[in-house]
Amino acid sequence: MNLIRRYRNLESRVRRTTSVPMMVRLGLFAAGLGALLTALPLEHVNARSVAILFVLALLPAARPGSGLPTTLSVAAIGLYLIATAGYGERITIPRVLALACLLYAVHSLAALAACLPYDVAVRPEAVTGWVIRLLGVLFGSAAVLVLALAAVGRLTLGGYAAFAFGGLVAAVGATWLLARISR
Amino acid sequence: MSSLRPAVPPTAPLGQPAAAPEAEGAPAWQPTRALGRAVLLSGLLLITGVLLGRTDVVLLATPFLVGTAFSLRRRPALPPDLAVTIEAANRVEGGEVVAELEVINPDEVRYDLVLVRARRSRWLRMDALDRPHGLVVQAGASGLITLEGEAMRWGRHDLGPVAAAAAACDGLFTSAPVVLRPARIAVYPRTEPFQAVDAMPNAAGLVGGHRSRRPGQDGELAGVRVFGPGDRLRRIDWRTSLRTGQLHVAATLSDRDAEVALLLDVTAETGNSGGVHGGASVLDTTVRAAAAIAEHYLHRGDRVSLLEYGPAARRLRAAAGRRQYLTVLEWLLEVRQQGTVDGGDPVATHLVSSNALLVVLTPLLDPSAAEMLARLSRSGRYVVAVDTLPTSGLSVPGSGPWMEAALRLWRMERENTLGRLREHGVPVVSWAGAGSLDLVLRDIARFAGAPRAGAR
Predict the structure, then answer these.
(1) Amino acid A161: pLDDT
(2) Within this chain, do residues B159 and B222 fall inside the same structural domain, yes or no?
(3) pLDDT at B6 over 50
(4) Residue A101's closest chain B neighbor by CA?
């Protein structure tokens, strides 16, 4: 009886589902999968690991309002660190740029998907405006990233005190932001 | 830091009374998981990059820092506001209902997404309300959601409550849901076409359209009599006067209005009400028939009063004209099933004129209703009972093997009651729209015209 009720609930949900939230979730899934694949060590790129990443990327798309997008982002960062520090893979600008953009896309699309119930009738300008802002942030970040790289000159620091100071300043800035929000 | 909550506005507050978020002590805007995620990932990447001495890891945080700074450059302070406007058209069941939901942004910051949910009465068919709506509302502006639908049944129907929750700063903040109380839409009953012959048992007013037995200046010829003081010269019947050699005048009867009292039995409700396109329950038939009868007689210039047979025993005093018709429609919107009458006589019969035609709309399910009809008839009033019990779709308690036999016995007993009522001089007719009451009204008028023997 319970199964029948669950089946009917699922059937009702599928029938009521609208296209826009599904497209946003599809975008979230694609960004998540892209981030994981970008971060995955090249040695482990095979059908099995891709299947696992596929399932992992589906989870935030299914529950965008939960902590799963955060988990996925942390997993991608961890994979990237393993690939570069553990397997000694070469750090390239396109890879860093792609991973940074995909991680932010996961974050922003998860925020949008969390606001959109599966059956919402949403006006197109709401989603297009959001996506345009997302692209704007990505282009701006890419510009900042390239400028920073041009200023520093290389991707590995090797103990530059100035860069460590810059990171600490950013960390202090994040703390200040937290304090401001909690007020 | 205050606790984070999902960005999806909860639906539970919809059923609760409207309350401003500030009144509950909660802040109007709260950070979402997305903000927590942005701060967490930024911090994690920065600290990891600094600790490992890796520029690339620090740079991974760039979009989060840029995006969060861009989104938080202006934070909202005021929650959205809601307003519902219902088009003030003449709403009859089966007619169109148009409403507008307005989402107002009183803040100086744009709402990136406002999610609006609304409930509605099941008798308002508005497909647009079956799902939530999302829209962008610019700073200081408002967004409109137009709702078009059909009113399926008479009555006062709720549109709402309506709830709205806004997301701003690219989903980093969401407002607490704002709930608007339901708006009431009055839907008047669709009057079935009703026409009755010009046969009122006792026209007793001053002026009107019915023949009376009192002499007057109107068109119905009563006879020819000898001229007397006060008679008008133009009424002299010259032919008779010349033949008899004495002045005679043509005497006429006056046309007078009548009072119609509609008694609505609200003690029981049965049958499946399917709205204007479906079956009719007892109350559906009662209300629609009452509206049709009232419209017919008020249009003819008669006075109509309404009474309820039920514990509340509401009453609308007799009056004539279009204003009374509108009052009758409003009065009918409040008709509800009220349960059985516990003793006493809830009908204030002394308030109904003894000359009034009393039309009782009853399903005759409660035994006290038949007793009431017999009592009214014995008191000398002109009573017509309209049977409002639907022919199909009766609500039967249970479905045991004896139910069919029990139902048949009950029907026989009811037929017996109807027969006894007819013996008491109370005609019982089923409501069938136009001409439903013609035959019985003619009989009643004939009885009323006959000389009465003895006291009532």
Answers:
(1) 57
(2) no
(3) no
(4) B63
Q: Indicate yes or no: CB of A125 within 8 angstroms of CB of B136.
A: yes
- Measured between beta carbons, the chain A residues lying within 8 angstroms of B60 are 77, 80, 96, 99-100, 103
CA nearest B92: which of B188, B10, B164, B183?
Answer: B188
B266 & B351 share domain: yes
Domain count across chain B: 3
- Same-domain status, B227 and B100: no
Alpha-carbon gap, residue A146 to A93, rounded angstroms: 9
| Tokens describing residue B50 | 């600094």
Could you give the 3-state DSSP secondary structure of residue A54?
helix
* CATH code of residue B144: 2.60.40.10
Q: Is A76 helix (H, G, I), strand (E, B) or coil?
A: helix
Nearest to residue B53, comparing CAs of A53, A155, A132? A155
On whether residue B407 sits in a domain, the answer given is yes
Q: Which of B67, B53, B44, B40 is nearest to A145 (CA)?
A: B67
pLDDT in tens, B215-260: 666 566 667 888 888 888 888 888 888 888 888 888 776 655 678 8
Chain B touched by A38 (CB under 8 Å): no
- Residues spanned by the domain of B154: 20-30+74-187
ipTM summary value: 0.86
The answer to whether B34 and A112 have CB atoms below 8 angstroms apart is no
| A160 interaction partners in chain B (CB closer than 8 Å) | 53
Q: Is residue B178 part of a domain?
A: yes
Contact A140 B70 (CB under 8 A): yes
Angle in degrees, 0-180, between the axes of helices A93-115 and A68-81, rounded to the nearest 10: 170
Give the 3-state secondary structure of residue A126. helix
Do residue B306 and residue B435 come from a single domain? Answer: yes
